[in-house]
Amino acid sequence: MSDASSTKVLGICGSLRKGSYNMAALRTAIAQKPPGMTIEVADISQIPLYNEDVKQQGFPPPVETLRRQIAAADALLFACPEYNYSMSGVLKNAIDWASRPPDQPFAGKPVAIIGAAAGMAGSARAQGDLRRSCVFLDMHPLNKPEVLIGQAQTKFDADGNLLDEVALNLIRDLMANLAAWARLIGQKK
């Protein structure tokens, strides 16, 4: 942990679209962060497709940056879209690259997940897949509250502002719980 009163969080959005509802949800989470929390947003847009031949030459610079950011964070916040009943390829690709040895940086990290999708389930299936990857990589996902913003196209205005009070309150609670979870996990290390 950074210190008893601060929590450094790395936000990772699994959508690259400029008008992404998940990036809008991540911006909402940043606005709802509790006192003492800082949030940096990773840029995964320049990470190449995973290729072991490329890895043999060393980590590409965007991957090195992401690995450093993950290692420096006290906790992670994923904004997880749902594509074809699973997490997006760009999010999975970033996780696959960052998790390669040596010294995979995810181990022991507290994690919170939010997600927005056009369907009724609001990225529930994608978040389930992401949680499986988190468990395998020895991250510690926060269980509650679940932030599943369904029918996202009706929950955000044209500027990306979240209009849904229930979702807004869930995000606020999630951010407070992430701060407490990060402190608890940090004490155990």
Characteristic key phrases:
8 strands, 39% helix, alpha/beta, two-stranded antiparallel sheet, 6-stranded parallel sheet, 6 helices, 189 residues
Task: Describe what is shown at a glance.
Helix content is 39%, strand content 17%.
Can you characterise this structure?
It is a single chain. With 189 residues, this protein is α/β, with parallel strands linked by helices. The protein is built from 6 helices and 8 strands. α1 (21-31) links the parallel β1 (7-13) and β2. The longest helix has 24 residues, at 165-188. The chain starts with 6 loop residues before the first strand and ends with a helix. The model has no long low-confidence stretch (mean pLDDT 95).
Give the topology.
Layout: E1 7-13, H1 21-31, E2 37-41, H2 52-55, H3 61-72, E3 75-79, E4 82-83, E5 86-87, H4 89-98, E6 110-116, H5 124-136, E7 140-141, E8 147-149, H6 165-188
Parallel strand pairs: 1-2, 1-3, 3-6, 6-7, 6-8
Antiparallel strand pairs: 4-5
